[in-house]
Amino acid sequence: MKLFPTFSNFIKKVSFIHVILVTILLLSCSAFAQKTISLVPLFNQKALKLDLYYLMDNKIDSIQFRTIKFYMSNITLLQDSAEVHTLEKQHVLVDLANNKSQIIDIDIENEISYNKIQFDLGIDPITSESGVFGGDLDPTNGMYWTWQSGYINFKIEGNSTTCPTQNHEFQFHIGGYQEPYNTSRIITLPLQQKENIVIQLELSTLFSQINFSETSSIMSPNQKAMKMADKLTTIFRTTL
Amino acid sequence: MKTKLIVIGILSLCSVGFYTIKSDFFKYPKYFPVPEYDFTKNPISKNKIILGNALFYDPILSKDNTISCASCHSPYNAFAHTDHKVSHGIQDQIGTRNAPALFNLAWQKSFMWDGAIKHLDMQALAPISDATEMGENIQHVVHKLKQSNIYPKLFQAAYGDRNITGERILKALSQFQLSLISANSKYDKVIQGKEKFTNQENTGYSIFKNKCNSCHAEPMFTNYGFANNGIAVDTIFNDYGRWMVTKQSKDSLAFKIPTLRNLRFSPPYMHDGRFKKLNQVLNHYTSEKNQSKTLAAELKKPLQLTANEKVDLIAFLRTLNDEDFIFDPKNKFPRNILLTTKTKN
């Protein structure tokens, strides 16, 4: 007799917890949709992979990429100019050597509408000066300068037969957060509110603007880095 | 919010007598300013300091496991180095700048002679990566530490698990360096009313306040600024100081204004270690400077100091030496950790 009421209490408790859990699940299912932002690197509309050779615009010379890494910060969905959703994770390191990093999970409330995506290409001054962080910002990612403060916002390394340097190598470490050489750039792209978000990086757009005999190496914040940062904004696109 | 209030309450209870006490390992005199370092992101703990102490003295941070931080920052030199004018690194390479003394770093706003690094946590990356210093990279340091017999345990004690990351290494190094507080010189004892200056020291103190205090401001004995003090550029190093970071002409030949604490232990002086003796430094300030547009306004004309005044000034500067700090056993090479257990490689 003693056991019975306890047992029924237990059953009651279990079912109560169940009801709550199921409600939460249902609510969450109805309120959020799990979507992804995919970053798709291209060279002349072909899928770009590290260490493969791609023909350049003149159809004679070739280019090969060893490293492509960059930071996207404050990823935000906009409806016209109103911010409707901001990704919780403030800084995302995209590394072409790591497939996982090219797909960013984003939970979007179902009822919101959006028609643009905006992000900072790079790291802001406050984060740059606030000491060491882990995860995507950990200095072991090779994206923090060692000789002065500041993250490398965008790193591209590789070689090209048009590059008049030893081993035909080029390296662009675009960073710097202090005026007048703040190399972070805001990028805004139009979106259609579909299942998932796809952002293409058309690298040929960048390299058609670069003359390797003038510029094959940028390793510090300066005027050249500022110009390169402007050019980098032109590689991002969405298809509508 | 509640915990915050409790923490603040405990902190204010701890602030008794002459010292502000953040933990057993971080207390400083009340007349020191509020530290620049944000401890909320890296709260001081004994085990993190122990880990940082081991890393600081371990040559595993260098490419060929020969050079540690302490190679150029020796405790007996107030964590500077007296044998070399400029730093020396792996394979007997010579750097370009004098290794600075390390203490009271929680108050420092920027690091390196040119202020290139804005946060203590990130400073260690510079010597670790510099080809003429440790020639290593932080990724490989993580790899080596993971292979070692001692570090996973030290990381476990410090961070609660054995995971070793760049962030954790750098935060631990910061913790050890933050714990290096020099605040027990005769000057400090005089300020606290525990001792008295001699007449000569008092005269020197007056001269100091008249002629030196604008840049080497009490009680830290630096205003944490940068200045061109009129030493001619070394034609081998061609070091233009802060200009190399900011690329602004006003910063040409400007270098960090160093603290004057513990000068007895930390010669040579200046960014390239060109002066061995304090006399030479004072003689520099009382002579004609290398004239340039960026020469500090205070130094356009030679400082007027008689030979006697120089002696008195040096007597005062000697009161800034802190032997308790130099010989503090807690800052020393951690024999019990680094000598008793050998690493695998």
UniProtKB/TrEMBL annotation, chain A:
Residues 36-220 form the Copper-binding protein MbnP-like domain. InterPro entries: MbnP-like_dom (IPR046863). This is Copper-binding protein MbnP-like domain-containing protein. It comes from Aquimarina addita.
TrEMBL record, chain B:
PROSITE patterns: CYTC. It is found in: Periplasm. Its main location: periplasm. Residues 199-321 form the Cytochrome c domain. Transmembrane segments: none annotated. The keyword Oxidoreductase applies. GO terms for molecular function: peroxidase activity. SUPFAM superfamilies: Cytochrome c. It comes from the Bacteria. The keyword Heme applies. It holds the Pfam family CCP_MauG. Keywords: Heme, Iron, Metal-binding, Oxidoreductase, Periplasm, Peroxidase, Signal. Signal peptide: none annotated. This is Cytochrome c peroxidase. It comes from Aquimarina addita. The lineage of its organism: Bacteria, Pseudomonadati, Bacteroidota, Flavobacteriia, Flavobacteriales.
